[in-house]
Amino acid sequence: MRTVVGVMGAGGVLSASAEETACRLGRLIAEAGWVLLNGGRDGGVMDASARGAREAGGLVVGVLPDADTRRASPHLDVAIRTGIADGRNYVNALSSDVLVALPGRAGTLSEVCFALLAGRTVVLVGWDAGPALAEYAELGQLLRVETPEESVEAVRAALAREG
Amino acid sequence: MRTVVGVMGAGGVLSASAEETACRLGRLIAEAGWVLLNGGRDGGVMDASARGAREAGGLVVGVLPDADTRRASPHLDVAIRTGIADGRNYVNALSSDVLVALPGRAGTLSEVCFALLAGRTVVLVGWDAGPALAEYAELGQLLRVETPEESVEAVRAALAREG
Amino acid sequence: MRTVVGVMGAGGVLSASAEETACRLGRLIAEAGWVLLNGGRDGGVMDASARGAREAGGLVVGVLPDADTRRASPHLDVAIRTGIADGRNYVNALSSDVLVALPGRAGTLSEVCFALLAGRTVVLVGWDAGPALAEYAELGQLLRVETPEESVEAVRAALAREG
Amino acid sequence: MRTVVGVMGAGGVLSASAEETACRLGRLIAEAGWVLLNGGRDGGVMDASARGAREAGGLVVGVLPDADTRRASPHLDVAIRTGIADGRNYVNALSSDVLVALPGRAGTLSEVCFALLAGRTVVLVGWDAGPALAEYAELGQLLRVETPEESVEAVRAALAREG
Q1: What is the predicted ipTM?
Q2: Is some CB atom of chain B closer than 8 A to the CB atom of C63?
Q3: Gap between the Cα atoms of D158 and D163, Å rounded
Q4: Per-residue pLDDT tens for B120-143?
Q5: Arch. (CATH architecture) of A4-162
Q6: Is the pTM value of this prediction over 0.90?
Q7: What are phi and psi of A63, to 5 degrees?
């Protein structure tokens, strides 16, 4: 079974810099040989990270909130159509061996929460998840780095640790 | 249709003071004539708030992660058995007209996130949900109070505002 | 915790006779002191059974596919807003101590399937679920009766048997 | 985006002949260039169809009821861990462009129901889904064939029709 790395983050329009970061993270994940999994929509971090991974020849799985692919990113290989709206955030978290979260808001934070509840390592890139999750940071399950490159190193270390 | 107020918070063993707070909140919700909805389990804020509401003659609906009632609080009137594990946090959030959240960690925070995404008013009692949700606080959708009594006033105001 | 009896069946426009049957079933469930649970929408068996139960003073819980109550039956006491579309059929089945199914099609049949998978007794009123479920019929877990009155007797017997 | 063909069927121990049929169906799907999607577990039609597809070099996605991969088939490429138990049957159905169902019972039938509700073509191989779904058969959305080879032809025709 292939290793799956989840990429979460803002769903809306990104700044040029955030777009570039998400795309680069996607490319790095593909280059590492991991499957990239995200929320599958045609905007924000979802679309940009999918594009980056696909351009580097990676496999991209999008877990859509929708029952169809009308709003799916064109850069997916496989569209999982859950039909359960934002409830799919739970599936995103569980289906990722490790979760990398770019800055986001309530949706992204819900995915961080579910990944932590499920025992997954979560790597935040350049943002802070707040005091309610401090305990996970102390345990080393919730990490913060500043760049996509550092997040990939953190993923690699987590995967090695978890065997 | 009756107004449903969700009560979320830590699922584990509570301090005597946190237990009393959750129980009092449950009682206040019942006295206001609202249905109390929570996660339905037999521990933490779920059990204490259910007990408080039932002792005051209120109606209590527990939305369980489980497929059965083996781990349900004995203080429920109706047990919704979702079978979708922590995915039921999404259902908890949507099914509450307003959400009151006592201190908790990842599970509680996921419910706060989903309620905000769905446009519900969320009232935090004595804790802080962190910077990722600051925008909702600025919009007045995410409030912080210090006591159950204040949270009930905030719920009342939100319900009046939303008609 | 109160006993919950699920009522499933066609969601579309009903014949006058089917409408009367669903309404009568709702009334009988309320008169037996059970909570009526159904899919919560404002049409078909959902609306008619809810109306019957409410007119008899019963408690009605609707488990909606929606994230809001715009399409809810006006005869619900409590609206569980799942937001998971037809995925809520799974929740309907698990949340019912016993399931009574009036004639329906794919949606109703999915609820029958899930209830059987979860070990619940299912009572079909005037229809047949087909050969794929024959094994459950042989085991006595899937029953067929012809009237609402008979279905209530079958529910009573199942509840007595299951303690 | 790649075409996804779902394969459903009994989860328990299979006869040698049923095992061979499921494996052959998996191989044919892979040879057609389609992604095979199934319920992901290490038994029954799930495991056999995954094995057949993998041996032919296909891509296999398993949508597990579980939150982890402990009970996953070893023949998956990607494991979607839903954590929503049998609720994942809904995701299986929606995520398949066309569904092929080998003989099964309540679980398989629930997937057939959900696929039909979502407008997908369903191809039954050697069994009958019963009178409650007769309307779908009349509309040509629910088909019956006798062999894996015929089911692949039916899938091809459905995909061509749906563009």
Answers
A1: 0.97
A2: yes
A3: 9
A4: 999 999 999 999 999 999 999 999
A5: 3-Layer(aba) Sandwich (3.40)
A6: yes
A7: -105, 95
